[in-house]
Every structure is written in C-alpha cells, then in structure tokens.
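Hey, I was hoping to borrow your eyes for a little while. I've dropped the whole record in just underneath, so have a look:

——
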Amino acid sequence: MGFPARYVLAVLLPPVAVIGLGRRSATVGPIGVILLAALVTYALAPWTPWMILGDMFWAAAAIWAVLTVRGAEEDERHEPFSTAEHHVSPERHYSAEDQAPREKD
C-alpha cells in the first residue's frame, strides 16, 4: 500500500493506516482506543453537543495516524528531518560529564 492511500486511510480509519509500518505499528493500539472512544461517544449521544467530543477524539486519532505515516515516509526517503537520520551517541550521557565530581577514595 502506497503512502497516498495511507493518508486517506488515516482520516477515514486511523488504526488501519499505521498497520505494517514496522516499529510504528505499536501505535495501532492507542490510536484504536481513541477511535473507539469517538465511536462510543457517537453511539451514546447522537445529535447532541457531546458529538463535539467524538469529533475531537476522531481528529486526535487522525492527526496521530497522519503524523505516524509522515514519519515513516520521511524515514523511507532518508530526509534530513527524519528521526532515523538522527542518532544520539551513547558514549556521553550529559554535557557536563567531564566536570562531574569524582568519587573520593
């Protein structure tokens, strides 16, 4: 499935859009829970002001899915802002490591 199709799915069915994106597939659960909260809100309070809450839940799930798909696309293209292109060196844990007080014997 190409990325343009995933963007459409991210708006219509957010959890389905992030399935199969490698390590990003772990976001299926939280996105699915938010989408279920939207659907439950629609089922319990149809055509009331509470539908705005359901709309906000759906928008949150869709935004999270779109950002996840965009991140996967940037990683695949090796773009400069890709998270896969930025790594932290494990050698130093904090900037003042050289100035850390030494243990006294």
